[in-house]
Amino acid sequence: MENLLDELVKLLQGDRQKRFVDDNGELLKSNLTECIDKLDAELFELLLQNEYIRQNYFLKIGDVYILKEKDFKKFFNNKLLLKDSYTAFKQKIGLYQDERHIKQNDDYVLCWPYKDCILEGGQTKEDDRRKEIFWNTVLSPNEVDKLLSPKVFTNFKRYSIDGEKETMDIDFAKDNFVIKGNNLLALHCLKNIESVRGKVKLIYIDPPYNTGNDSFLYNDNFNHSTWLTFMKNRLEVARELLSEDGAIFIQCDDNEQAYLKLLCDEVFGRENFVNTICVRSSTPSGLKTAHREKTIIKIKDYILVYAKDGTNIKFNPQYTKKEKWDTHYNSIYNRLDNSSCSLVDIMIENGLLKKGDNLNDIDLNNKDHKHFYLKYSENIYSTSADMPKEQKKYSLENFNKIISYKGSDGKEQFAYNGRRFSFLNKTVKKVFIGSNLENDIANLLCDFWNDIDFNNTQNQGNVNFISAKKPEQLLYRIIDMTTKENDLVLDFFCGSGTTCAVAHKMKRRYIGIEQMNYIENITCERMKKVIAGEQGGISRAMNWEGGGDFVYMELSALNEKYRQELVSAEDNEALNNLFIKMQKSKHLRIETEEIKREEFFEEQDIEKKRSLLLELLDYNQLYHNYSEMEDEDYNISQADKELNKKIYKKE
């Protein structure tokens, strides 16, 4: 078979359009599959030239040869023979086994186009909404190493209460960071930083949901696959950054939740799945209800939670305020005379309830009621039959008497007629009430979160960010659940900076990554206001008065500068000027003379010109590579060189 593969490669090198074999002699399997599906005549003519292929992979009927498509694809998709690992399944997404769809099986794998490849993707800004622009550029293995190699950082600034200063003193083991640049490449840079790799305690991301409103506008066969590949590339490197006791929280909705769950099972291990949290993110009102007769209105998001290692993870339990009084708590114990009486009677005596009121009339939102039950939370109790046999027997022998005994934790316990006291203070926890954290009686929070207000969050942090802004209370809960002070938090879809803002107020270290241009006038502005002591979000709950600092820096752009200019160019003149400028660059994919020689560039419409110029860019050269930092053509300053050496700890 190996000899046949070599013969196939030589045969396909005869294709005039150079579609099937790359410059290194590697078979471009995805292109070959696509041309078979399209019944490409030139390809079939080439295949029929080889006697072995003709005899074994074609069926002859009269004078007509018919390709045995399934058998032939199975041959050239054999991963044992190919150095690349491009997936064979281009048209369908789903569960596969032995190259066939399966409906249910304990052993499954999620397959989609280009699953095992790096699909380079970028972001750009349109209006005030987050938009994703993807180049369907599949990179071969020898290109991937260069693409994902460490990049040069530049434009270092430190922001503190004293304002903005250029800095030559940064430390990833101590400082906070906001990084501008492609998040896939930035993550691979972080992977090469010793004090970050394997040190991140929490990753929270709120990626684009692939709803059709965020520019994932590929044809139906590639819509899901593009998004899944985009996520897979990033999640795989994110896992390497997590500490062994770390966790990742990924927010999404129904557009991709099911596929994302399977993808995360593959990346993080199904055994490390913790839970899927359902979050009420909106209310059924206004325009949302216009289609109520045609659909079920969406008011929820999901947060998928995975541990790096499920055996090491430990969560700090979270609580939410009870909505009404638990009537099991019906008595109050007087430790001074070892007596008990009705809770309602005592509250009537204290003027908190009226005669004829009962336990259901205790109002948790009444300030006087709250003051009373919190003050006497160590006395108010319910009873339970659950207690040690020996103590239960002793209690029953002392009928109608309150007895005390030592519990398994060494603390004093009380019982009456064989029933153990359970005091209210065990249910008193810190919970959010509005913007404040207060002690109140609470329920353990599980996997349904319906108590956080997602409305009117667009101005939190004193910066306006209309699209998909998350409440600070949500991030407080996630960060408090998984980290302690000085732990490292990462958000590589940083957006308006909610994760960074909350982490800063909670005295956690953080790294935020965002490619969009608004990072400077929204994300950084928000963080500067946090440092100055802004009082929105969780500030009052944290008694936040300001302080601290963060470092802003960027991936040093090379072709990324051209890409941004090409995407934002609005007329032919701008594109023509860019074309002239690009001809002087050494970092293009092909020679620009080829376009000039064909003399068709000027004849194309604006979108065709934009597309042609984007194709010229070498996406391995979007940013300056650290390994080529000393190249004089890069014009990297000596100060930046020194800082980058400190970052990567290389002399």
Shape: elongated
Low-confidence stretches: 79-92, 122-136, 214-222
CATH architecture of the largest domain: 3-Layer(aba) Sandwich
Say which CATH homologous superfamily of the largest domain is assigned: Vaccinia Virus protein VP39
Arithmetic mean of pLDDT: 84
* Total DSSP E strands: 27
Q: What is the CA–CA distance across the termini?
A: 48 Å
Strand count, sense and barrel status of the largest sheet are: 11 strands, mixed
Quaternary organisation: single chain
CATH topological fold name of the largest domain: Rossmann fold
The percentage of residues in β strands lies in 15-25%
* Structure classification: alpha+beta
Task: Give the C-level CATH assignment of the largest domain.
Answer: Alpha Beta
Helicity level: 25-40%
Number of helices: 20
Tally of domains = 4
Q: Radius of gyration, Cα only, in angstroms? A: 31 Å
What strand order characterises the main sheet? 9-8-27-10-26-25-11-12-14-13-24
